[in-house]
Amino acid sequence: MTTNTVSQAAQMETHGVPNDMLPNLNSITVIIALPLVTKFVYPFLHSRGIRTPPLRRVALGFFLEALGMAYAAGIQGWIYSSGPCYKHPRACAASMNGSLPNHVNIGYQSPVYFLEGLSEVFASPAGYEYTFTKAPKSMKSIIQALYGLTAAGGSIIALALTPTNKDPDLLWMYTGIAGAMFAAAVIVMVVSYKHEGKTMGTLQMPEM
Q1: Shortest CA distance to 129 belongs to which of 197, 76, 206?
Q2: Does position 114 have pLDDT exceeding 80, yes or no?
Q3: CA-to-CA distance for 62 and 128, rounded, in angstroms?
Q4: C-alpha to C-alpha distance for 167 and 88, rounded to whole angstroms
Q5: How many CB atoms lie within 10 A of CB 78?
Q6: What whole-number distance in Å separates Cα of residue 82 and Cα of residue 9?
Q7: What is d(CA 189, CA 15) in angstroms, rounded to the nearest whole number?
Q8: How far apart are CA 69 and CA 112, in angstroms?
Q9: pLDDT by residue (tens digit) across 137-170?
Q10: For the chain, which terminus, N or C, has the lower number of CB atoms within 10 Å?
């Protein structure tokens, strides 16, 4: 999704900030949040008797990603409702040959990267933990590799969405992804409650 959000930033007022700089906020969020979550959030939940099994954390990560995409959809809607070109940024006569973006500050896009970073903090380590602990001893490596292969599945989905990567359809693209992520989060949460039990109880701290 980084390519899409970078393209979205190009439709906004950057005030000299390169539109491909904001994705660094994702990495910064992960670097800062991961140790904080591991050292403080999980122990705090543990002290309250709240379990955080892997699938529960994956579901939380999906919810955060859904929230990030919903926010991106809101930003895209704001861009489309702002001049000078409204639903066709940099593509109208008022944009002076594409030099003027719509009047929305690029800073408002920042929460997208914070939410994506937090999503990775919860979902990514938990996914690897789940596949490693549940795989048979003789198949741990191949199961881990297959889990990593899911990134290819994400790329295939991105390719399938390519026809929607144009104005004025970007709003629906972000909305659709947000809805799909929310549905996936609900499914994972249901599976978690079925296979990992209730939230309250003895907690096994995740290995990070």
Answers
A1: 206
A2: yes
A3: 15
A4: 6
A5: 15
A6: 14
A7: 42
A8: 7
A9: 888 888 888 887 887 887 887 788 777 788 999 9
A10: C
* Helix H or strand E segment including 204: none
Cβ count within 10 A of residue 115: 22
Two structure tokens written together for 182: 């929310």
Place of tokens 């290819």: 152
- Rounded to an integer, what distance in angstroms lies between the CA atom of residue 19 and that of residue 179? 26
Q: How far is CA 73 from the centre of its chain?
A: 13
| Other C-beta atoms lying within 10 Å of the C-beta of residue 71 | 20
**pLDDT tens-digit readout, 30-81:** 999 999 999 999 999 989 988 899 999 999 999 999 999 999 999 999 999 9
Return the HEC string of the chain: CHHHHHHHHHCCECCCCCCCCCCHHHHHHHHHHHHHHHHHHHHHHHHCCECCCHHHHHHHHHHHHHHHHHHHHHHHHHHHCCCCCCCCCCCCHHHCCCCCCCCCEHHHHHHHHHHHHHHHHHHHHHHHHHHHHHCCHHHHHHHHHHHHHHHHHHHHHHHHCHHHCCCCCHHHHHHHHHHHHHHHHHHHHHHHHHHHCCCECCCCCCCC
Read off the amino acid at residue 78.
W
Tell me the torsion sign for CA atoms 195, 200, 205, 208.
positive
pTM > 0.90: no
C-alpha to C-alpha distances, 170 to 46, 75, 84, 96, 112, nearest whole angstrom: 42, 11, 18, 23, 15
